[in-house]
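Hi V.,

You were right to ask for the full record rather than a summary. Here it is.
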Amino acid sequence: MRVLSDNQCLRVLEDNYIGRLGFISGGGPTILPVTYFYDADGHCIISYSGEGTKIEAMRENGTVALQVDTIISLDHWESVLVHGTYEELSGIDARHLLHKFAEGVRKILLAEDARPGTHLSDISSKVSTDKAPVVYRITIDEITGRKRP
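Predicted structure:
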């Protein structure tokens, strides 16, 4: 196993859109899959969710982690771990970053399989209420990665 450089770690984040978000809920760790976009300009992770346990937990304790993999085979993979801080956005900032999220993920999907017409509702879990989604960013405090071979 080898260590990834910072640039290699960022490439893994840029090339993917599904990760596992770790946070503290009810006194213990919880890990859930999320759709995300790495914003290179802001050096942060952008995502959104409906109101619920995950958002409530991150409001209470903003220390989070995001783990992202690129797996080719059992002996050929890259794995990146981000430690960061949750920040909820609102108003024009939330709308701007939600648009950036949707466009960024759409570009990754188009590059993967040239699938036209991908919309925000196609690339992330449905927000099941009539309320606006909670848009958040994870400020990256630390990033590490490993790869094999």
